[in-house]
Specification:
Number of domains of chain B: 2
CATH superfamily of the largest domain in chain B: Periplasmic binding protein-like II
Distance between the termini of chain B: 56 Å
Structural class of chain B: alpha+beta
CATH topology of the largest domain in chain B: D-Maltodextrin-Binding Protein, domain 2
Oligomer: heterodimer
CATH architecture of the largest domain in chain A: Orthogonal Bundle
Largest interface: A-B, 57 and 62 residues
CATH class of the largest domain in chain B: Alpha Beta
Strand order of the largest sheet of chain A: 1-2
Structural class of chain A: mainly alpha
Number of domains of chain A: 2
Number of strands of chain A: 2
Number of helices of chain B: 20
Radius of gyration of chain B: 25 Å
Number of helices of chain A: 13
């Protein structure tokens, strides 16, 4: 079936309207993507001419223990920090959807950390984690606990990041809050008549009703975790101090996240080829995990009766 | 359908073109890219130069990126203004760029600065990657006298027989000690050997009722000094004369074992707590040394100026880093670094860059920086300059510099990666998860493929 003149004109006009986006997409997404694919097969320091080395960079990353260490650290954040943050957000959302005096103020207080720039927030947290003067250890001391050197002891560094992450759950809290407000109040009223307690209402009504939102947030947070960079970069830089000091991945590389190691390879070790190969490995890992999570999420939402 | 096919083909063609330009763009290796780049560069340079000439008369613009910020950046701007006032051929435009990533990106594009200020470690790394020019052609063309610089500051910036940057300031570490704490521990003179230092450290250490240090005797903080000077004092070296990693050097193991011995006396948690706090408070009013909580501190020449600024009342002294009883001649061994001015290979105004380099690293320019930022001179003439010597602690540090015992960094492209491996392994030693011998064996294995 041939196209009519109007259809052809509409197609051309549509294309013209979309052209700025298409050009931007080609220049700022496709071109860098394909460039990095090419560089992943070269020895390249970002300035001089790349030299073709075939699969050497990929062999290098598979034999580099720090690549796996950094991937392990990142997966820890994905599978530990993400659920903790999500749970924190949900708890906060449950609190602020209740009717009580000063609700607006409480909402603001819970959301406030989300609008503080990450750099400033991380610097504050570094002080909070100070083993001698920091608030965290001072609070622990009220319970007779001698707090650790959070950012200097490899056993605690990642947990410090988990704590930092849960503090910053304001945006997710807002999404959960909106979802909770969408749940018809008649459900709760019926449940009350049937004698359900608050816990039962939560697990039988609230949670299934917002399961699709939680899954969506989980996938988003999961992908974001693979871009976890700013906080650890600031912490390791602060620990290194002036003119170098502790390791570039924190104590025993315990907070060497994958993006940080990728950055170090590209801009500190001047191994842009290896960094590009790492970026492609990351892309493949995230793609696989996202597909798995999406499929799993369908099952979750279907069994919860969600959308 | 046909339209869609045409569209798909067009997109594919554009993508292929993008890929091809990516292949040549960075290195400028293809003729097409070279021609395009040349045309673009010519047009851009012409436009930029025209605008600059209009702004600064006939002066050609030289762009200069320095890695300082805040008050220090003002000192660099002061030096630039003095240079611009001293001649009319060039106009230097300075920019504070503390992010190495931005520098690399600029050098890989058409936005490279003409002069960069970097550390000599970076200079050696950059020359190995072909990012900065050798200065030999300029030096020989003008018969430039390099004898004005200290020999170690020249070798710190040389690879092979070529010099890759002029030293602007020198940097070394020596030992600060708290005279009152030392006297309280029963000593009147600072240690000359590591064995003496350890003995004094144990005597002076004070542990509080909560198990934490009130006074740290042995200089385990800052880490960077424990990693270098404490090891150099034992004769340890992280690399040999042929630039090969030597992490199992007996001096390294001796030093690390003494560190571990001290940690074991008081517990690693107490040490970690002290270092964690000291890290956060470093160079602030609450700095552990400024507060009288450290007996020894291996640090740089800027420390006394900082203490003065913060009103610290600590009664301090400076002495050379100790040697050992077996090798007393090792006393004073310390890293030697410089801040260096280099010309990127991608710079456009290279003659102007060299002219500025000479001035900035010469007596007039270097003095502005040394005095203004509290750094040690690389120029021998400034060793006796009254204004330089007036800075607190500088006389002692200049004495140390003149011993020429600076430990030079190796010519290794992968030096940054090697430091990373070393640091991570030292963390394991300090955490008690590995012995120094085990950790250094692993470093040797991990560093085997570094070049």
């Amino acid at each position: 079936m041939g196209q009519t003149v109007t259809e052809r004109r509409n197609f051309r006009n549509g294309l013209l309207f979309a052209l700025p986006w298409i050009l931007g997409f080609l220049a700022f997404s496709v071109y860098p993507l394909l460039s990095s694919l090419y560089y992943s097969f070269t020895k390249f320091n970002a300035v001089t001419t790349p030299e073709w080395v075939g699969l050497n960079n990929f062999k290098d990353i598979f034999s580099d223990p720090l690549v796996w260490k950094s991937l392990g650290n990142t997966l820890f954040m994905a599978f530990v920090s993400m659920p903790v943050t999500l749970a924190t957000a949900l708890i906060l959302a449950l609190i602020v959807t209740k009717n009580f005096r000063g609700k607006g103020l409480v909402r603001t207080v819970f959301f406030l950390p989300s609008v503080i720039p990450m750099v400033a927030a991380t610097m504050v947290w570094i002080w909070m984690f100070n083993p001698t003067y920091g608030y965290i250890n001072q609070i622990l001391s009220w319970f007779g606990i001698n707090g650790p050197a959070w950012l200097l002891d490899a056993r605690f560094t990642k947990w410090a990041l988990v704590l930092m992450g849960s503090w910053n759950a304001g945006t997710t809290m807002l999404v959960c809050m909106a979802a909770l407000q969408e749940v018809p109040s008649s459900y709760y009223e019926s449940a009350s008549i049937d004698g359900a307690n608050a816990l039962r209402k939560f697990f039988s009504i609230s949670l299934p009703s917002i399961a699709h939102v939680l899954v969506y947030q989980a996938i988003l947070s999961f992908i974001n975790t693979f871009q976890y960079f700013q906080q650890v970069k600031i912490i390791v830089t602060a620990n290194q101090g002036l003119k170098g000091g502790s390791g570039g991945g924190g104590p025993e590389n315990s907070i060497l996240m994958y993006p940080l190691y990728l950055y170090q390879n590209g801009f500190e070790f001047l191994k842009m080829g290896k960094a590009s190969a790492m970026a492609w490995l990351l892309f493949i890992v995230v793609a696989i995990l996202t597909v798995v999570m999406t499929k799993a999420s369908r099952k979750v939402t279907d069994s919860a009766g969600g959308e | 359908m046909k339209k869609k096919s045409i569209f798909a083909l067009t997109v594919a063609a554009v993508m292929t073109a993008g890929l091809l330009s990516a292949c040549g763009g960075a290195g400028g290796s293809t003729a097409t890219t070279a021609a395009t780049t040349a045309a673009t560069t010519a047009a851009t340079t012409e436009a930029t130069t025209a605008a600059a000439t209009e702004a600064a008369g006939d002066a050609k613009v030289v762009t200069y990126w320095y890695n300082n910020s805040g008050d220090e950046a003002l000192v660099y701007e002061e030096a630039i203004a003095a240079y611009n006032a001293s001649q009319s051929a060039y106009k230097v435009e300075g920019l504070s760029v503390t992010d190495a990533q931005k520098l690399i990106v600029a050098m890989s594009s058409n936005e490279s600065p003409d002069v960069i200020k970097i550390s000599n470690q970076q200079a050696l790394q950059y020359q190995g990657n072909g990012l900065i020019d050798s200065l030999e052609s300029y030096i020989s063309a003008e018969n430039f006298d390099l004898g004005i610089y200290s020999p170690q500051s020249l070798s710190a910036n040389s690879a092979g027989d070529a010099l890759y940057g002029l030293p602007l300031t020198a940097y070394t570490i020596q030992m600060f000690y708290n005279k009152d704490l030392l006297e309280a521990a029963g000593y009147t003179e600072p240690p000359k050997t590591m064995e003496e230092m350890y003995e004094m450290a144990v005597e002076a250490t004070v542990i509080g009722s909560d198990g934490n240090f009130e006074v740290l005797g042995y200089p385990l903080f800052p880490y960077a000094s424990a990693r270098q000077e404490l090891i150099y004092g034992f004769g340890g070296r992280w690399w040999d004369d042929s630039n090969k990693p030597t992490p199992q050097h007996e001096g390294i193991l001796a030093s690390l074992n003494l560190n571990v011995q001290y940690r074991d006396l008081y517990g690693k948690d107490a040490v970690n707590n002290f270092i964690g706090t000291a890290n956060t408070n470093r160079y602030t009013e609450q700095d552990m040394f400024f507060q009288g909580k450290q007996l020894f501190r291996l640090d740089g020449s800027w420390l006394p100026t900082m203490m003065e600024g913060f009103g610290s009342t600590v009664n301090w002294g400076i002495a050379l880093i100790p040697g050992t009883e077996a090798n007393p001649e090792l006393q004073g061994s310390s890293r030697f670094e410089t801040d260096t001015l280099s010309i990127p290979t991608t710079a456009k105004e290279k003659d102007g860059a060299w002219d500025f380099l000479k001035w900035q690293c010469g007596p007039e320019g270097a003095k502005i920086i040394d005095v203004g930022t509290g750094n040690l001179p690389a120029l021998k003439a400034l060793y006796e300059d009254a204004d330089v010597l007036a800075k607190p602690g500088f006389a002692e540090f200049i004495d140390a510099l003149q011993t020429e015992k600076g430990i030079q960094y190796p010519i290794m492209n992968d030096l940054a990666e090697y430091w990373n491996i070393i640091n991570a392994s030292l963390d394991e030693v300090y955490a008690g998860t590995k012995t120094p011998e085990q950790a250094m064996e692993e470093v040797a294995a991990a560093a085997a493929n570094l070049s």
